[in-house]
Hints:
Blueprint: H1 2-18, H2 22-33, H3 38-43, H4 53-90, H5 109-123, E1 127-128, E2 134-136, H6 137-140, E3 167-169, H7 175-181, E4 188-197, E5 209-219, H8 224-239, E6 245-252, E7 255-264, E8 273-274, E9 277-278, E10 287-296, H9 298-303, E11 312-319, H10 320-328, H11 334-338, H12 341-344
Parallel strand pairs: 1-4
Antiparallel strand pairs: 2-3, 4-5, 5-11, 6-7, 7-10, 8-9, 10-11
Bound molecules: phenylalanine.
Amino acid sequence: MKQQLEIIRQQAMQALESAETPAALEELRVKLLGKKGELTAVLKQMGKLSPEERPVMGQLANSVRADIEAKLEERKTEIYAAALEAKLRQEAIDVTIPGKAVTLGHEHPMNQVLQQIKELFVGMGYQIVDGPEIELADYNFTRLNIEEGHPSRDRSDTFYFTDDDSLLLRTQTSPMQIRVMEKTEPPICILAPGRVYRKDEADATHSPMFHQIEGLVVAENITMGNLKGALVTLMKQIYGQDAIMRFRPHHFPFTEPSCEMDMQCHKCHGTGQVDGQVCSTCHGEGWIELLGAGMVHPNVLEGCGIDPGKYSGFAFGMGLERMAMGRMRINDLRLIFDNDVRFLNQF
Ligand code: PHE
């Protein structure tokens, strides 16, 4: 029996030494120390021994068990350490490999100008508002004093959704005037930038989708002087203190009186010519049209429940692409929408 125990010890040590995985170790543990294991089998024979032999064998058996347990523990630690090391080696990061460059984009030039304009108006107390691009003809035309049959309602100019021409892609941001005025008591002071749509072929100065910025101020004693003050402040901010502007009389059904504002052409400085050729930026005009504006028509105020006897207001609507083109010296509108990085990188 002593011999049996010594053999178990010896073989166990060898087997444990060559076990390489946690699973192999577990298998050995069951085989050696389990209920049906080798050691248990030997111990079951203890009954056959004489009373003198029993404690001696018992002691030996315990020392074999203790040795096996210690060896198991030792191998377990070694195997886990080896596995960890292998894993670390496999996952090693080569910190000397050059990094991948992260190229950061930047705001689109048109959005840069929009941001500048918004900031300026917010500083003057305007609130920025947003409204639907799919609009009722009622808001886009009728309540803006644009009667049935007016040329701007023409199907050749407007994207209608319905046969009765009641729903459309807004052709201007001016319906935002109505949406704000019907819900708000004066004083009103808002700026409403957004997309508008017209059936235009795309060329250097036209696009079927473009952006406008609508401004509306309604309060007591608002005059054309307030309108001019706001717009001149804007232009000097965007184009510099020496920018030259002019106001021209014009007609809009929803403002009275109405005007348009032009900026002196930045390319030909108002002469209409560059190197003896007609200036391509202003087509020889010397001026670039930037916006329409005027004093809100009494019919429009009244239609929104605002008393024109007590309140007056001004409104303006400017083309954002036009503003950006002048500001960034861009000579073709289509470049703004092409998203060619060679173009965008320049701003
Ligand atoms: N909505 C007009 C246009 O698109 C511009 C405008 C806005 C004119 C506000 C007067 C007042 O041409």
